[in-house]
Amino acid sequence: MASVDQELRSINIQSVQILEKEQDPRDFNWQTGGYLGFEVYEGSKAWYGRLPLEEHRQDWPNDGLQKNLSRFDELIKLLHPIPKNEIYPEFPPRGLTRYRPQQEGDNATRFFKAPKLGYHRAGRDNLAMRLLNEAEIHEKILHHPHRNLGSYLGCVEEEGRLVRLVFGKYSKSLEDCLQFGLPWEFTLQQCEDFMDGIEEAVAHMHSLGLAHNDISPSNIMFDDMGRAVLIDFDACAPLESCLTKGGLVGGWKGPVVGQGLQFEVSSAECDKLAIKEIRKDLAEALEKRDGM
């Protein structure tokens, strides 16, 4: 049975800007204002905290997963340890697939998804319930699969708790392509085709009574065959149920440009509008590339 490597360390950083009520984003200092949000793991142990951006950006110049972990022990002294019961739900007696590697080395080609600690609230188990909800969503899709939906492989149990979701690992996202320039092999027809695949996958989800609610370029990956695959279901919920995450159309464009419609309930319309925005972004990126 799979288990979490207790010596495996990770530091993930995200810039966090909190505007005052009714403050115009154009008046905010995006370079020095705000905080650095730290999500830190050592095996299944977790720490979280926000440190002033202006004071700590020099030590941690880049957002995202950090390659240099030499200051790990120093960093966790500044953060808050999170009790396991607040981020990991009890593993239910039935209904979830336990991940078991088929052969040695399998784990190297897997992505082990942990809770996103930035959503943790002290004394509450909202993250634990979100992880369990996502596992249950993936189990439903596992029994009603679609080729353009992510490759869920099961869950990792530790000491009676659900601690990780396991997926096949993808190396490239649509966000990567848009950020670093669309590959020349991407034609307009190919872009339309892979977005058609995503649209079909979303329609399949809707037929199951679910909406994704957080479709963005970072949640569209490409497999080894070049097929687009929709991932990240932690905002997915039954249609018309209240949302605790996601629901912002175009939020990936940033606080100034991304002033899209905000949905408060799980909605097929939210997914459709997000796909429409991504198609628009792709068309603009193709026009820019081909006009060079």
Automatic annotation (TrEMBL):
It comes from the Eukaryota. Residues 76-292 form the Protein kinase domain. One of its GO terms (molecular function) is protein kinase activity. This is Protein kinase domain-containing protein. It comes from Cryphonectria parasitica (strain ATCC 38755 / EP155).
